[in-house]
Structure formats: structure tokens, C-alpha cells
Design goal:
The chain is of the alpha+beta class and 315 residues long. 31% of the residues lie in helices and 14% in strands. The chain has 10 helices and 8 strands. The strands form 2 sheets. The chain has a 6-stranded antiparallel β-sheet. A two-stranded antiparallel ribbon has the order 3-6. Helix 7 packs antiparallel against helix 8 and helix 7 crosses helix 9. The longest helix is centred in the last third of the chain and has 18 residues. The protein is globular. It starts with a strand and ends with a helix.
Length: 315
Amino acid sequence: MYVERPPTADLAGRLACVWHQVSEADATQLVVPDACVDLIWGPEGLFVAGPDTGPMPTPMTSGDTFVGIRFRPGAVGAFFGVPLQELRDQRVRLSDLPSLSDERVEVFDLPSPREERVGVFDLPSPREERIGVADLRALSDERLGAPDLPSLSDQPARVSDFPPFHDQPDFSSLHDRRVRVPDLPSLRGAEAGSRGRLDAMLAAVRGRLAHGVPADPAGAAIAGALRTGRTVGEVAWDLGFSERQLHRRSLAAFGYAPKILQRVVRFQRALTLARAGVPLAEVAVTAGYADQAHLSHDVKRLSGVSMRHLVSPAG
């Protein structure tokens, strides 16, 4: 069973969704590229799923439970303290991210454990509590105000519409925080349920974003323009970048070079259309492929299976 829900309003500019999955049988879950980065709490603890460039088959055992927070494409910025290209096609424990494993973040008003009510997605309203990544380490027994992004749009914006942003996020501000991390007896109960884990993860994300972890405000416009099928050169011109600038900003915001990003976001657009029942020939034209054969080739390269397999109920 897999269910996803939108994030609370205060995080909607950075997060695509929160999700919950429970494996009902021993199986292999096929994960396909979507230009997103996820923070996940699974049976082995907390880890980061970086931006993928190909299929990622994930073995799951019956009863395995995963809770995840998915960042919007281009909205991660320096959140995880490392360049995104270092996370590409990787599943990395938070303990292996050096800037997070040594971090000390202030904690305010630790939430009390709550019983499971309607379900993991019966989310509380935003509060002022801030839980650091160090606290999530304690929970999982691991060492574990950015501006709103514009909506994905087929109408490209000009670079003059965006405030200045460095081609590479500044990670220096994420180090050398010397603030206490108290004992967490009141939070140990969060280990018992998915709801408690999600609450702790969301509070940690709020706390880290409150310390200032910007994302490139041009990120969504870059992805939106590339997914229409226009060439990289045309997109750079439309947005007011040189191709070299577009390459640097794409790599910093997504972990992908523009060509790979284009392939991924175009594939996701095609997948959405196909799942809505649009005939594949029409999907190819609408999503910007040269023809249906081009669509089929790209889908197989990115997912390892055919589009018909992906849109089937079992897919």
C-alpha cells in the first residue's frame, strides 16, 4: 500500500508531498526518476534518496514500512549539506553526510508523543517547534525561509525575474553550530509509529529551513521549460542564461546536467499523460518527443520497462 498527501501550507513551496508505504508481500518496488530528492525513514533508519537517472529496483519484505518527505524538483538547495550531484543515483544514510553528522541544532518545544489517530497523514497544524537532524539521529539510533518557488509552467520566465543566486549553494553556513541537543525521552515513542516518525521528520525539516537553506528560485522555471521538449539552447535563451550558466545552475539545483534533467522531466510528463489514458502516440507529440519510437526508447532507458508496464495496475 502506497499513499501520498500534499504537505502542509507552510512547506508547500519546498515539498512535493509526504508519503507512506507498507509492503504487503515480499516484492521488488521499481522506483523511476522524477527529479526529486526524498528523506526517508525505513526499516534501517533514516536515509536520503538522491536524484535518479535510471531505474532503482528496491527489494521490500512483507511488513516493511517507509515514511518519506519528497522535495520538489529543484527545491532541495543546500538542505543536505552536500552538492546534489554527489547524491545522484545514491541511497545514503544521514550518518554518511558529514555536514549533518556533526551538526548541533537548537531544539525548541519538543513535541509529546501522540497516539495514532486517523492515520499517518492526519497531520498537525504547523507549530513553532524545531527539531534538528541530530535529534532524528537519536530517534532512529543512527548518527544521523527560502522564497517560494514559482509553479512549474510551460511559459518560461526571464532570468531578470529571478533574484540573484549562486551557481553552487553555500554550504559553509551549515557547519559549526554550537547549540545544545537535549536528551529526548519524550520523543522515543515516535519510533513506535509512522505518524510519530513523520511528525519528527517534518519538524526537523521546518527547523533546518528556518535556519536559512535557500534553493535556486529559477529551478522550477528551468524544469518547466525543459519538459516541453525545447532544446537546451532554446531554454537557455528563453530564460536569459548562457548554456554554461544553465548547466551550472541545473547541476546545483537538480544534480543533473540540463540534458539529463530534460529527459527526466519530459518522461514524468509523458507518464502523467499516459496514466490519464492519453493514447501513446498523442503522449509522444504532447510531451515533446520526436515520435512514439523516441518515447518508447526514453521510457525504457529511464525505467527499464515499457510505458504499458508502468501504467498497468501492477506497474
